[in-house]
Design brief:
This protein is of the alpha/beta class. It has three domains: 250 residues, Purple Acid Phosphatase, chain A, domain 2 (4-Layer Sandwich), CATH 3.60.21; 75 residues, Double Stranded RNA Binding Domain (2-Layer Sandwich); 40 residues, no CATH class. Helix content is 36%, strand content 22%. The protein has a six-stranded mixed beta sheet. Helix 4 crosses helix 5 and helix 10 runs antiparallel to helix 11. The radius of gyration is 23 Å and the shape is globular. The termini are far apart.
């Protein structure tokens, strides 16, 4: 076996705009550009992307151009790129995908789909890519409900394993799904179900996880935190460098510098105190170290009667003045101590659902994803999101009443 170097990425979510800030969309694109620079310095044998290269199945033209430009920089240097489809960059099962558009535009970029394949063996053959002296087996993403995905995994993973067993050289499995050791709620398989390959490059779980077992597997985690909860995770941000040789597998973590996220709580008893709290929190945040001014997630508690418009105006003003991205989450404190989240000026439906209805944030995010699927008339995606929502007992029943 020859020594091979692989760069493993996942969950880039190009085009995402966390909390509505254009600056965060640009942060994510800049991180992608920085990764491209790093790839050209490392000159690996191959780059693999384990799903969700894009945040939406129909990204804007600027985002698509930026992605194509970066990928061309890589492949033009003789470094092939193989990508798996994820739920975010995959439309309905009958539509073309944005990855197919990229594949047509970028020589050396591969994103196979098993369309037309009828048996597990045909699926595996359609998903096998031999490039850079490496054989990559790309697991197909299916927009079907969880139980159906588990059934498919029970048929497809053994077929991938049989194919890999008869393949020489370096073998890599590329999949966008959860394993039960990492995220049981959404899992479709266990590590022991992975094909007998040299390395399994995984995506879909946004926190980093590296495991050396019978089959070495890893999740790089999302390239940039997409919300404050993800920012609180302590793992490094960036790709993984994977070296495979006859002695085994070694995974090196790469740390990219990303915008810091700060979560601060404050309480005010009057309009002026509330304005001062915003200014003071932004001023303190601006003195924090980092490559860029941080994102400040400010949970501000105020009594009834304090007007909201001046607070959002102040947040926008200090954002312009200091560069600190101020995201307000306002709680009204009613008589008796009850708290209700209100945010009419910069409505964040996820926070409203979480604060007022007690909906878990992940379920609230799924509700917003369901809205997008319905607006895009993507019935397959809508069914898949409804299935994921059904894992939160009582939520759908509560809304139905």
């Amino acid at each position: 076996m020859d020594t091979k170097r692989i760069i493993h990425l996942a969950d880039l979510h190009l085009g995402a705009r966390p909390y509505g800030f254009r600056e965060r969309e640009e942060d994510i694109l800049e991180s992608f550009d920085n990764v491209v620079d790093m790839i050209l310095e490392e000159r690996p044998d191959i780059v693999v992307i384990a799903g969700d290269l894009f945040d939406k199945p129909r990204p804007g033209n600027q985002v698509l151009r930026r992605a194509i430009r970066g990928l061309r920089r890589v492949t033009s240097q003789g470094i092939p790129v193989v990508a798996a489809h994820g739920e975010h960059d995959t439309p309905g099962r009958r539509d073309n995908t944005v990855l197919q558009v990229v594949e047509a535009a970028v020589d050396g970029f591969h994103a196979p789909l098993p369309r037309g394949a009828r048996s597990p063996g045909e699926v595996v053959e359609s998903q096998r890519v031999r490039v850079g002296g490496v054989t990559v087996y790309v697991y197909p993403f299916s927009k079907v409900d969880l139980e159906r995905r588990r059934t498919l995994a029970g048929k497809l993973l053994p077929a991938f394993s049989r194919a890999a067993g008869s393949e020489g050289g370096v073998r890599v499995f590329l999949g966008h799904f959860s394993l039960d050791t990492v995220f049981p709620l959404d899992s479709i398989a266990s590590p022991g179900d992975l094909p007998r390959v040299d390395y399994a490059a995984m995506g879909h779980v946004h926190r980093r996880h590296i495991e050396y077992g019978d089959v070495a597997y890893a999740y790089p985690g999302s390239l940039e935190p997409l919300n404050v909860d993800e920012a609180s995770l302590s793992h490094a941000r960036g790709p993984l460098i994977v070296d495979i040789d006859p002695g085994g597998v070694r995974v090196e973590e790469v740390r990219l510098e990303v915008r810091r996220h700060l979560e601060v709580e404050a309480e005010a008893r009057s309009p002026q105190e509330a304005l001062n709290a915003i200014s003071q929190a932004a001023s303190q945040a601006s003195r924090q170290g980092g490559p860029k001014p941080p994102l400040l997630y400010l949970k501000l508690r105020i009594p009834q009667g304090v007007p909201l418009r001046p607070l959002y105006q102040r947040a926008a003003e200090v954002t312009r003045r200091t560069g600190v991205l101020v995201k307000l989450s306002i709680e009204r404190v009613k008589e008796g101590g009850a708290r209700v989240i209100v945010a009419p000026e910069t409505l964040d439906p996820v926070e409203v659902l979480a604060g007022e209805l007690g909906v878990p944030r992940e379920a609230a995010r799924l509700v917003m994803e369901l809205k997008e699927a319905l607006l895009e008339d993507d019935q397959d995606r809508a069914v898949e999101v409804l299935d994921r929502l059904s894992r939160y007992p009582g939520i759908l029943e509560r809304w139905a009443r």
